[in-house]
Write a structure and sequence with these properties.
Distance between the termini: 55 Å
Oligomer: single chain
Strand content: 5-15%
Protein name: Transcriptional regulator
Order of helices and strands: HHHHHHEHHHEHHEEEEHH
Number of helices: 13
Shape: elongated
Strand order of the largest sheet: 3-2-1-4-5-6
GO molecular function: DNA binding
Radius of gyration: 21 Å
InterPro entries: Cro/C1-type_HTH, DUF5753, Lambda_DNA-bd_dom_sf
Largest sheet: 6 strands, mixed
Number of strands: 6
Length: about 280
């Protein structure tokens, strides 16, 4: 087993292939569920990659779809086996957004809009340590430290020497001016963002207050894209108790167009970096 197998991505690819086989057979998820005496929601979760897929599930589905080529069956069975391996994040225990981490770990590029806070991949340890208990006031000290460690580990994708994550961030000006922790933490955080924005694979733009109403007014979202053409882009919207993943082409296209408008309305890279540094100086007073 290769050490770089990503179980989240394996589940997603396997689910897409199982959906393709079902559609080729001309069956609905409800019909498949009736044949296997399971719930329709189970079939949907298997196909969207949000549920672990066992080799037995694959065998039963291939039987329903009358897949005769044993090579296809064997390939799907291997994918099911791979999908049950553990990613690096499992070492930290139960992480609520583990599905997202799996996708982010394998993504080629990430575009994100943050209206209130500095995006996690650019956060300093001090900022993260102040942010998490503020956002989740009932979180234990142990869980806060675990979340901070996971956040720092995730940042290895943008600092990797080879094939780093291409990151494009649009920050609302509010994220610069909302004091998380104290002024010293904010100054260090903004200086860090400005420095990271100099890397060739990282772009940071600021959406100033005077823009007024804009397409991101409804809140944070991210668009993940993958190098493998078999993996469709995903729009990720973080929630309080659950997260939303949009993969349908028209949904991804709508959010992509919204993001293009945000980029166009935001300050350019140089202006954004200068504003970030100017606000950082204000915190030094």
């Amino acid at each position: 087993m290769a050490s770089n197998v990503n179980p989240t991505v394996r589940r997603r690819r396997l689910g897409q292939e199982l959906r393709r086989l079902r559609e080729l057979k001309g069956m609905t998820a409800e019909e498949v569920a009736e044949r296997l005496l399971v719930s329709q929601s189970k079939i949907s979760r298997l196909e969207n990659g949000r549920r672990s897929i066992s080799q037995r599930d694959v065998r039963d589905l291939c039987g329903v779809y009358e897949v005769e080529d044993q090579r296809i069956v064997d390939s799907l069975m291997q994918m099911a086996k791979d999908s049950r391996q553990q990613g690096w994040w499992h070492a930290f225990g139960d992480i609520p957004y583990s599905v997202y981490i799996g996708l982010e770990t394998d993504a080629e590029s990430l575009r994100t809009y943050e209206p209130q806070i500095i995006t996690g991949l650019l956060q300093t340890r001090g900022y993260a340590e102040a942010l998490i208990p503020g956002a989740l006031p009932e979180t234990s000290i142990a869980d806060i430290e675990k979340r901070v460690q996971v956040r720092i580990r995730r940042q290895e994708r943008v600092t990797a020497e080879h094939n780093p994550l291409r990151l494009w961030v649009v920050l609302d000006e509010a994220a610069l001016r909302r004091i998380v922790g104290n002024k010293q933490i904010m100054r260090e955080q903004l200086e860090h963002v400005a420095e990271m924005s100099k890397l060739p694979h990282i772009t940071v733009q600021v959406l100033p207050f005077d823009v007024g109403a804009h397409p991101g007014i409804n809140g944070q979202y991210s668009i993940l894209e993958f190098s493998d053409t078999a993996d469709s882009s995903v729009v990720y919207i973080e929630g309080v108790t659950s997260d939303l993943y949009l993969e349908k082409a028209h949904d991804v296209q709508k959010y992509t167009v919204m993001y293009e408008h945000l980029r166009a309305q935001a300050l350019n890279v140089e202006q954004s970096r200068q504003l970030i540094l100017d606000v950082a100086k204000e915190y030094a007073r």
